[in-house]
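Build the 3D complex.
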Amino acid sequence: MNAVPTTILSAIITVLAVLMLFYTSVPVGRARGKHGIKAPAMTGHEDLERAVRVHMNTLEQFAIFIPLLWVATMYFTLIGWLVPALGLVWIVGRFIYMQAYLADPAKRSTGFTITILASAGLLVLSVIGVVMALLAVTAA
Amino acid sequence: MNAVPTTILSAIITVLAVLMLFYTSVPVGRARGKHGIKAPAMTGHEDLERAVRVHMNTLEQFAIFIPLLWVATMYFTLIGWLVPALGLVWIVGRFIYMQAYLADPAKRSTGFTITILASAGLLVLSVIGVVMALLAVTAA
Amino acid sequence: MNAVPTTILSAIITVLAVLMLFYTSVPVGRARGKHGIKAPAMTGHEDLERAVRVHMNTLEQFAIFIPLLWVATMYFTLIGWLVPALGLVWIVGRFIYMQAYLADPAKRSTGFTITILASAGLLVLSVIGVVMALLAVTAA
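Done.
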C-alpha cells in the first residue's frame, strides 16, 4: 500500500467543498417557501436575508479557497497531507459558520475565523511553495 | 486523425461557460440604463432585479460547475467525452434558465433543473473517478 | 539561470488576484462598523452599498478571470510571459476600479474597462491556444 498523492486528497476536498457550498444554498429556497417571498425578491424576512448572506459569504470564501488549495497542492510538496488537512478545516469552519449565522448573525465570527485561518494557512503554503519552485528554477 | 483529449474539450467547455456567465451580466447594465437606476442601487425596477438574480444565480452555479468539471476531467477516464458533454448540457440549461427567468421568474425551474442535473452528473463522475484513483493507488 | 515557467508566474498571479479579491471585502466590514449596520442587512448607507458592489463585482470578474488565466496558461505557449502579464493588468485594473468606485460610482468605468480588456485578451489567447492544440491532435 502506497501513500495517497496530495492531488487525489485535494480533489476529494474540492468535491466536499462544492457540496458544502451547495448545502448553504438550501436554506435560501426553504426561507423563500416558508415566508412566501417570490423571486426575484431577496429581502422581506430576516430568515431569508440570513440564508442569503450565509450562501453569498460562502461563495465569496470559496472563490478564495479553491485557487489557494490548488496552488498549494501544485507547489507545496514538503508535507503533502497539510494542504488537504487545511481544506478540511475550511469545510468544518463553514459548517459552524452556517449553523451559527442562521441561529444568530452576532454569533457568526467563530466559524468565519476558522475559515479565514484555513485560507490564510493555504496562502502561506502557496507562497512557500511558489518561492521554492522559483528558487529551484533560477538556481538551476 | 486521433481522438481529441478530454482536457482540450473541457478547456473549450470552460471558455464557453465563461462566455455564458459574462452573457448573463449584460441584461443588468441594460436594465440599469433603461430604467435610469444608478449604481450602487441593485433594486428599483423588477427588470433590474430579475437580471441581477439571473447573473448571481449563474455565478453561484458556475462556482459549483467548474471545480466538478475539472475533477471529473482529471479522474474520470472511462468515457472521455461524457465529462465535456455534461458541460455542454450545463451551458444549454443556463441559456434556457436565463431566457425563462427574464420573461417570468415563475418559469425558471426547467433551466435551473437542467443545470443542477448536469452538475449532479459531474459530481457522480468525479466521485467514481476519485474512488477509482484511490483504489489504484492503495491496491498498488 | 533558466526562464521561469509560465505555470509558476500564473500561480503567483493567482495568489495576488486572491489577495486583491480579499482586499475588496475589507471596506464592507469597515462601512458596516462605521455606520452601525448589523448583518444580514446589505443596505442602509451609500458607503456600505458601494463597498458591497465593489466586492461583488470583483467576485464576478474573478470568476471569469481565473478560468481564462489557466486555460491560456495550459494551451497558449507561443509567448509564455503574455498570459501572466495580462493577469497583472487585471489586478491593476481592479485596484483602480476599487479606488474610483468607493470615491464616486460614476467614475468606475476606467478600472472596469481595464479589467474587461485583460480578460478579453486572455479569452483570445485561450481560443488561439485551444485551436492550436486541436489542430496538433487532429493533424497528427
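The CA atoms of residues 61 and 115 of chain A lie 8 Å apart.
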